[in-house]
Amino acid sequence: QVQLVESGGGLVQAGGSLRLSCAVSGSTSSNPIMGWFRQAPGKEREFVAAISWSGGTTYYADSVKGRFTISRDIAKNTMYLQMNSLTPEDTAVYYCAARGRYYATDNDDSRQYKYWGQGTQVTVSS
């Protein structure tokens, strides 16, 4: 079982930055895929970014490339999402998620993720 706890959400003005954290605990494989998803009101949950825990390979949605950076600190068992140049369109509840192990494909598909955090609200004002 894996537990995921997000933090770092809040209210920020357009053009600002936030860093989200996801604390990971419990039993995982040696190199699971970890991801960030978001869900805005009235919209489906969408992929933001993913990372392979040990190898550090990253994957990004086109909408956030060049603005968001996913990373992890293995010693702290924590994953991060650095979000820069935020726009009101980035407003959503952000979730961290984990697949059971490493996969090279379908890392943008929320249905492939087994474990989920409770979410943290990010609101970007114009």
Describe the structure.
By secondary structure, the chain is mostly beta strands. Helix content is 0%, strand content 50%. It has strands at 2-7, 10-13, 18-26, 33-39, 46-52, 58-60, 68-73, 78-83, 92-98, 115-116, 120-125. The strands form two sheets. Strands 2, 4, 5, 6, 9, 10 and 11 form a seven-stranded mixed β-sheet that branches. It is globular and about 40 Å long. The mean pLDDT is 95.
Distance between the termini: 40 Å
Strand runs, count: 11
For the CA atoms, what is the radius of gyration? 13 Å
Tell me, rounded to a whole number, the average pLDDT: 95
Beta-strand residue fraction: over 45%
Oligomer: single chain
Largest sheet: 7 strands, mixed
Short description:
With 126 residues, the chain is mainly β.
